[in-house]
Amino acid sequence: MKKVLSLILVLLLALTACGTQEKEDTATPKENKSEESTNAAKDNEGTRELTAEDEKYAELITAKDYETVVRETGSLKSESQKDFYFIASAFIKNNEIQTKTYDPNDPNAIVTDHKVIVNYLNRVKFVPDQIKDEVDGLRKAAEDKLAELEKEAE
């Protein structure tokens, strides 16, 4: 029963990630960013003013209350909510990986789970300084583990 629930949760997270990507891919040309504006946005990354909402979500992440962050930012109404939703989702997925038992007959499951973490963190545009080290650590750990798993698969 636990395996079925775990599988459903993994599929739900994967579908959520895919659904958000599809929404971005189907944006009208007016909504699509040009390469120049994307580069300009990356140059301005980290310069966003912290709001009270940002502070609240950063504190929740520091306190490891990821479920509350996901629940409160699930609407994805603002860039800030999107960033914190993806950060919290990545930490939830990482915690899930730590406690999950993988089927040795399905080596792609653990690779897929690490890809989900990397994809969530790649969507984040702004990380407040107070959680930057935590997020960067998770990103590095997930990317390193993913590289290691893909190397073993070869």
Please state the structural category: mainly alpha
Could you describe the largest sheet, including whether it forms a barrel? none
Low-confidence stretches: 21-44
Percent helix, as a range, is over 70%
Distance between the termini: 33 Å
Proportion of residues in extended strands: under 5%
Please count the beta strands (DSSP E, at least 2 residues each).
Answer: 0
Overall shape: it is globular
Number of DSSP helical runs: 7
Please trace the helix and strand order, writing H or E for each element. HHHHHHH
Rg from alpha-carbon coordinates:
16 Å
Mean pLDDT figure: 80
Topology, element by element:
Elements: H1 2-25, H2 35-43, H3 52-62, H4 66-73, H5 79-99, H6 108-123, H7 129-153
Helix pairs in contact: 1-6, 3-5, 4-5, 5-6, 6-7
Structure overview:
Helix 3 runs parallel beside helix 5 (79-99), helix 4 (66-73) runs antiparallel to helix 5 (79-99) and helix 5 packs antiparallel against helix 6 (108-123). Mean pLDDT is 80; it is low at 21-44. With 154 residues, the protein is mostly helical. The chain has a domain at 51-153. The longest helix has 25 residues, at 129-153. The protein starts with a helix and ends with a helix. Helices cover 74% and strands 0% of the residues. The chain is globular and about 45 Å long. It is built from seven helices and no strands.
Describe the structure concisely for a colleague.
74% of the residues lie in helices and 0% in strands.
Name the descriptors:
mainly alpha, 7 helices
